[in-house]
């Protein structure tokens, strides 16, 4: 019998034992979300309500029951299927923390009554607001997305153009940097009255404010990235006969991409803040407008529902920008930790 024929069964046996070891090691982690959900549902069912509130809708315990079944199925899938195990085990502690936070929220509001109504509704009331106002929330979220994307795109284009000009040309730097230092540090929200006076449309005034908030960090980081490109890159390209446009768009701009993306992330954070401020003044639709409208009627369950939608909305936009960064700067993986 040859060595190769003996090697194959040994390798298969080793792989099988390795899978069993991975399956058994840390399997309890996958059951943490199930245990946390079971605790949250038990406390909600057994403890009496401490808040004087409207009749409960029953949506929150129904949600917990659905979550209980889902976490149990995931835990079983962890034991049987490797893809489920690979996905669940890194995320199980975070999922458990989220469920525990939900349980604590239910305890300090609805059950123990430590936080008074109407300012601190429990999860059942907020869930009711999410379900009952889902159409209005989706409509306002779409309006916020339109306003944010318009202002962010305009600010990014303007910031890239001005940043590349200042970073590449000494003359543009001489004239542009003083303007950047004077206008850039002014908060965009401080210019709301001026924007409303210049633009007749509240949408365009909001988009202009967001564009201004995005323009400053994108310009600064783009100019810094362009001006700090290694001179050796430019010298090699010139030796090979590259012209100015090739040097700017094929050498300097790709080399400055890491710095540019830092500016894009900073601009996105500023855009979120400016969006909410712009929607509370003059704009007749959007998540910021919806929060101000419901707050005026002390409907804080709907206010918290809008805040949840806002968090999901902003997180999705930020995740999309991360995906774009990962796609463009794929060469940095393994060199720089993200």
Describe, in plain words, how this protein is organized in 3D:
This protein is mainly α. It has 2 domains: 99 residues, no CATH class; 198 residues, MetI-like fold (Orthogonal Bundle). 78% of the residues lie in helices and 0% in strands. It has 14 helices and no strands. Helix 6 crosses helix 7, helix 6 packs parallel to helix 9 and helix 12 packs antiparallel against helix 14. It is flat, with a radius of gyration of 27 Å. The N terminus is likely disordered.
Q: How many individual domains?
A: 2
Helical content stands at over 70%
* Overall form: flat
Unreliable sequence segments: 1-7, 17-22
Tell me the distance between the termini. Answer: 51 Å
Q: How many distinct beta strands? A: 0
**CATH class assignment of the largest domain:** Mainly Alpha
CATH topology of the largest domain: MetI-like fold
Class inferred from helices and paired strands = mainly alpha
Order of helices and strands: HHHHHHHHHHHHHH
Beta fraction of the residues?
under 5%
Helix tally equals 14
CATH architecture level-2 label of the largest domain = Orthogonal Bundle
Radius of gyration: 27 Å
Largest sheet: none
CATH superfamily of the largest domain: MetI-like
Average pLDDT value? 82
């Amino acid at each position: 019998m040859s060595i190769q024929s003996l090697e194959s069964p040994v390798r298969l046996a080793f792989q099988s034992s390795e899978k069993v070891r991975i399956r058994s090691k840390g399997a309890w982690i996958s059951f943490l979300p199930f245990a946390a959900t079971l605790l949250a549902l038990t406390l909600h069912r057994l403890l009496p309500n401490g808040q004087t509130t409207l009749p409960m809708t029953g949506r929150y315990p129904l949600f917990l029951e659905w979550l209980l079944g889902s976490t149990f199925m995931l835990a079983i899938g962890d034991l049987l299927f490797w893809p489920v195990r690979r996905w669940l085990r890194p995320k199980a502690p975070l999922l458990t923390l989220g469920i525990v936070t939900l349980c604590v929220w239910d305890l300090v509001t609805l059950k123990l009554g430590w936080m008074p109504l109407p300012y601190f509704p429990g999860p059942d009331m907020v869930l009711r607001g999410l379900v009952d106002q889902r159409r209005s929330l989706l409509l306002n979220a779409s309006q916020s997305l339109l306003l944010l994307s318009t202002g962010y795109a305009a600010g990014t284009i303007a910031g890239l153009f001005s940043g590349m000009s200042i970073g590449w040309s000494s003359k543009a730097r001489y004239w542009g940097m003083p303007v950047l230092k004077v206008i850039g540090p002014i908060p965009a929200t401080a210019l709301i009255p001026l924007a409303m006076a210049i633009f007749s449309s509240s949408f365009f005034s909001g988009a202009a404010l967001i564009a201004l908030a995005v323009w400053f960090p994108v310009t600064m980081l783009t100019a810094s990235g362009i001006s700090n490109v290694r001179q050796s890159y430019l010298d090699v390209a010139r030796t090979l006969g590259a012209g100015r446009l090739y040097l700017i768009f094929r050498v300097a701009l790709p080399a400055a991409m890491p710095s540019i993306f830092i500016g894009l992330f900073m601009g996105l954070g500023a855009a979120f803040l400016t969006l909410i401020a712009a929607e509370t003044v003059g704009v007749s639709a959007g998540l910021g407008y919806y929060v101000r409208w419901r707050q005026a009627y002390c409907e804080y369950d709907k206010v918290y529902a809008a805040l949840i939608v806002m968090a999901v909305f902003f997180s999705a936009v930020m995740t999309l920008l991360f995906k774009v960064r990962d796609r463009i700067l794929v060469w940095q993986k393994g060199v720089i930790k993200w």
